[in-house]
Amino acid sequence: MKFATLALTAALVLTAEGFSPAATNHGRSTTRLSSAVAPPQREAPGAGYVPEWEDRPGLSPEEFMASDMSKPDRSGMWECPLTRWDSDDIDVVKAQKEAAKMPKCPLEMRASAADNAKGAQYFADNKEKIRKELLKYGAVWLRGFDLMKSFKGHREMYEALGLDPCLDPLHSSGLRKFASERDAIYEEVNKPSLRGHYIGLHCESTTKRTAAYAAFVCLQKATEGGGRFLVADGAAILAELDTKLLQKLYDRKIRISVSNLDLPPSLPGILKEGVKGLVDAAVAPKFDMDLEMVFEADGKEGRLQAIETAEAPINRHPVTGLPVWFNNAHNHARKLRDRRPCGVPEVGMTEVFYADTLEPLSLEDCQEIKRASEKHITALAMEPGDVLLVDNYRALHGRDVFQGDRFHAVSWFTWDDKEEWRGNERRIVEKNALNQAINSMMDWLPKDFESNQS
Ligand SMILES: [Fe+2]
User: Fold this and answer.
1) How far is the CA of 274 from the centre of ligand 1 (A)?
2) What residue spans carry the Polar residues bias annotation (predicted)?
């Protein structure tokens, strides 16, 4: 019985953001680290560029959520494609020089009255140009478009651009909730329980699966402030990072732990092994990741961590060949999370390790990743109708804390012009029941949930 509870708790926490709420407070009560050590100060992270809000009006939820029922149901979309790793034999110094030549990300494209009058036709007419800019800049901020103030218009936009939807890389975990399943639109992390949680930079990627592109849309900005969407160019971060650190991380590689399960240290070894075996066999496969269950990698007695396989922190872009910082450490490193607004229960806390020794990244290395990343963050003032198109192998994204209610949504896309990269896997619809069950449990989370990790 106890094992089942633990396994279920673990089942609720693995996400690409590396966190998620456990369904109850159960996960919190078992997880305090030593209370003798004072927790570090928490400070809101910075951003290199913070554009002003313009306060453009949006539609009411009834209006923006309406789907065009005359269009076909897209819920049988593609699986998220497998990650395209191309990270061997990279000359770090050369890579930094090459990456430094890239233009500032994101490119801003503003709708004129004439553009808006064209509706979806604007995107059909400018498809080639916009897709080319996306590859060149890593992200394109479409500002002031009336079309995308609704799900219906968002779908018309991505269809006009020839983008082909796929599942979230962690769809099978059941943690990703659709905003409009028939339009292939997921809800972003808008839950009131997580509005006080800063989501650091990450690509929508696991070692195993990575979406090719994304379109993030604002339907309603946060009613009481905050909630800026964050984007940063992986090329700019690569160019910015201290070369010695970059070389070290490239040589040693990294591994990411996506969940902590704290067992009582007094639990007999045979029972610990039993839990490990159970989680490994029954829970981990649901996450469609290559995970290894490891005891006490971060030094905490009795802690079982689910750790992804080793990966390089630099990867060449599949289309352009440009080497970029393709890595989720800014979001996942524990030492950074512990120093900023964080609403993750201990069971969902992530960590980043040097792959060769499985030691957590040092504070000094984390601080350099933070500095280089945040210097290149644009903290977008997204208004209703704004869309951020992201090349997910190039630019990283995140979200600042917010107050009040906010409604942003996202669609993921696979390779639309390369069948062999896309693969032939379609959505496995049986997974629905698990998704819905877990999501409905998550809705029970208290508002303004705060974790008690130290
Ligand atoms: Fe994300």
Assistant:
1) 33
2) 22-34
Measured in Å, residue 287 CA sits from the centre of ligand 1 at 16
Q: What percent of the chain has pLDDT over 70?
A: 85
pTM here is: 0.87
Q: What is the CATH number of the domain that holds 189?
A: 3.60.130.10
What is the identity of the amino acid at 90?
A: I
Interatomic CA distance for residues 213 and 229, integer angstroms: 16
Structural domains counted in the chain: 1
Q: Is residue 133 part of a domain?
A: yes
> 317 C-alpha to center of ligand 1: Å?
19
- Token readout for 342 is 């964080």
Q: What pLDDT digit, counting tens, does each position of 367-411 carry?
A: 999 999 999 999 999 999 999 999 999 999 999 999 999 999 999
Is residue 453 in some structural domain?
A: no
SS3 145: coil
Q: Classify each residue of 125-150 as buried b or exposed e, where b means 16 or more C-beta atoms within 10 Å of its C-beta.
A: ebeeebbebbbebbbbbbbbbbbbbb
d(CA 2, CA 4): 5
Q: Per mean pLDDT, which range of 47-56, 280-289, 370-379 is the poorest? A: 280-289
What spacing in Å lies between the alpha carbon of 113 and ligand 1's midpoint?
32
Q: pLDDT tier at 12 (50, 70, 90 boundaries)?
A: very low
- CA of 25 from ligand 1 middle (Å) equals 24
Contacts of 198 (CB under 8 A, 6+ apart): 44, 45, 340, 341, 342, 398, 399, 400, 401
How many angstroms separate the alpha carbon of residue 216 from the centre of ligand 1? 10
Model confidence over 98-156: pLDDT tens digits?
Answer: 999 999 999 999 999 999 999 999 999 999 999 999 999 999 999 999 999 999 999 99
Domain that holds residue 103: 2-29+48-442
CA of 38 to the centre of ligand 1 (A): 31
Q: Cα of 396 to ligand 1 centre, how many Å?
A: 8
Q: What is the pLDDT of residues 79-103, one digit of tens each?
A: 999 999 999 999 999 999 999 999 9
Whole-number Å distance, alpha carbon 200 to ligand 1 midpoint, is: 9
Residue 157: inside a domain: yes
Cα–ligand 1 centroid distance for 18 (angstroms): 10
Determine the distance separating the centroid of ligand 1 and the alpha carbon of 421, expressed in angstroms.
21
Classify residue 451: in a domain, yes or no. no
